[in-house]
Amino acid sequence: MATSDLHAHLLAYDYTWDTPLDSVGLARTASLIRAARAEAANSVLFDNGDFLQGSPLGELAAQQGPDGWERPHPVIAAMNAVGYDAAALGNHEFSHGVDFLRAALADATFPVISTNAVTLMGATPAADRHFCPPTALIDRRLAGANGDGDSKPIRLGLIGLVPPQVELWERNHLRGKVAVRDILESARVWAKALRAQGADLVIALCHSGLGPADPAPRMENAAIPLAEMAGIDAIVAGHTHMLLPATGPNPLPFVDFAAGSIHGKPAIMAGFWGSHLGIIDLQLVDGPRGWSVAGFRCSTRAISARDPAGRLVATVRNDPAVEAVVCDWHRKTLAHVRSPVGHTDIPIESYFARLADSAALELIHRAQHDWLSAAVQGTADAGLPILSAASPFKSGDRGGPQNFTDIPAGPIALKHIADLYVFPNAIRGLRIDGATLREWLERSAAQFCTLRPGVAGQRLLEPSAPSYNFDAISGVTYEIDLSASARYSPQGVLLDPAASRIRKLRYHGRPVASGEAFLIATNNFRASGGGAFPGIGPDCVIHEPLTLTMDVIRDYVARAGPITPKAAHNWRIAVPSAGTVAWFDTGPRARAHLPTLAGLNVRAIGETAEGFLRCEIRF
């Protein structure tokens, strides 16, 4: 059994909307775990990483001081109560620094491993000094292995793998403390070492998703080539919040989505936030060289299902053991997120933030611009134009039809800031030129499908492009021509150097020159190369404090008094042909905001089986 990407979602509650949410929470997943254990005499439970960070409860637990965390960390306490056998580190375990992480892990009653996160890199992976144990061995006896009530010993070997990109994403926390070796390089050496230590089976807890099939150095999503590696028997993958097995088309080589296998080996991905429990049933045979896999069956079990009206409703109750250790933290988190911050005179929402400029992104832009303006005062950069880049983090995607920012006019509390900016990113100031600015926007434009002029019924948004890689940039004006081919793929690969979707890129009404200098406010993920945006990296950074962007926004709202973050309408989607019609999905509450879409011909079509509101835009 396995969970992945819990992101500190312990109870079935959405703290940003301050309402119960039946589709999340380890307390619900724990009930599935309890039921699965009753089905099988021989079982183990693992977590695949990103368990400590990601909800307001997790953020509160990371704070120091009287309102901060006290040991044990609530996530660790909950995992202890569930009875995990082992866990691997994900990239977001490092989001609050290595000292915090060490203290949190100290109370775990199960081994936590990371095979490729090292404090000192040796000449080979075998010579590395590790941040935590690189592997784990679990010795069990298989009850009834011979069918006659007898039991026989089996030794399971575990490796835990994290994307090496975390070195860049969490550079301020990890610099000089932790380095991350290539996933495949580490796995090859340590899987072999586990066999030498008597492991009958080697299971990879791979906090990495489904990416390219061919191996390459320092892959972020390396599950496919990892499965091809000799000596690994099963894979628990994650990081990308997907499901495996899954229904639908089979778009990737060597992956059988229906069966849950990669290169013929059992593999599972258990969604996110406790939404699913992943299960691999192994049929084992005891031979001269020990146990081997003779067959398998992979599945995922959901904690919720859709009712006839299309709403997600719980299929299991909360596990009492998890509720008991979390209840005090739940109360503290509710009090914390309800703390007042400021006031907005207009609603702030993200339902159409990938369609046009929005109040949600405008508020982020204003706060970031304000911060960077203050940061460069008295420096040589003080006279340069200041821009801001921001993404609509809550914009549907795999988070579902409720995964949108929706802040009503009136008082703003901390929960609203968390609803607007869900990631613990730190603010960054960069110096770039006009050519980099144009490429930044071309990479963002990979969010969209190419539209055939004059044709109706086309998809607007690329389904494989996450909204956190769609940066709108304030301070300049521009158009995105979707009749043109994409220059970059949704993964950031250069497709066509001659292609260009960005038109009329101007600063104060004049065309932006390639060599023109700009300052731009963004976050540490983007500044360190996250999302594969060309020309952007640590060399561009001029300001890198530890200050979180959500704190910058909170302080701006508190300081500005009543705010009215109306959309600036500095960019728009363009298709140079009348009669072009495209459809896109948004949240059902978007209906109330359709009248506010000035200048856009958008209408609602109806709700999908997944609960989204399908709309079409006519150009």
Could you describe the 3D structure shown?
With 619 residues, the protein is an alpha/beta fold. The protein folds into two domains: 2-332, 4-Layer Sandwich (Purple Acid Phosphatase, chain A, domain 2), CATH 3.60.21.10; 340-447 and 471-572, 5'-Nucleotidase, C-terminal domain (5'-nucleotidase,  domain 2, Alpha-Beta Complex), CATH 3.90.780. It is built from 14 helices and 38 strands. The strands form eleven sheets. Strands 9, 10, 12, 13, 14, 15, 16 and 17 form an eight-stranded mixed β-sheet that branches. It has a five-stranded mixed β-sheet with strand order 29-24-33-27-34, sandwiched between helices. A four-stranded parallel β-sheet has the order 1-4-5-6, with no helix packed on it. Helix 4 links the parallel strand 5 and strand 6. Helix 2 crosses helix 9 (320-337), helix 3 (74-82) packs antiparallel against helix 9 (320-337) and helix 10 packs across helix 14. The longest helix has 18 residues, at 320-337. The mean pLDDT is 94.
Task: Annotate the secondary structure layout.
Blueprint: E1 2-3, E2 13-14, E3 19-20, H1 26-39, E4 46-47, H2 56-62, H3 74-82, E5 86-88, H4 98-105, E6 112-113, E7 117-120, E8 129-130, E9 135-143, E10 151-161, H5 166-169, H6 171-174, E11 179-180, H7 183-196, E12 201-206, H8 223-228, E13 234-237, E14 243-244, E15 255-256, E16 261-262, E17 265-270, E18 276-287, E19 290-302, E20 304-306, E21 312-314, H9 320-337, E22 340-344, E23 348-349, H10 359-375, E24 386-390, E25 406-407, E26 410-413, H11 414-420, E27 427-433, H12 434-444, E28 458-459, E29 472-474, E30 477-481, E31 502-507, E32 510-511, E33 517-523, H13 524-527, E34 541-543, H14 549-560, E35 571-574, E36 581-586, E37 602-607, E38 613-618
Parallel strand pairs: 1-4, 4-5, 5-6, 10-12, 12-13, 13-17, 24-33, 28-36, 30-35
Antiparallel strand pairs: 2-3, 7-8, 7-11, 9-10, 14-17, 15-16, 16-17, 18-19, 20-21, 22-26, 23-25, 24-29, 27-33, 27-34, 30-31, 31-32, 36-38, 37-38
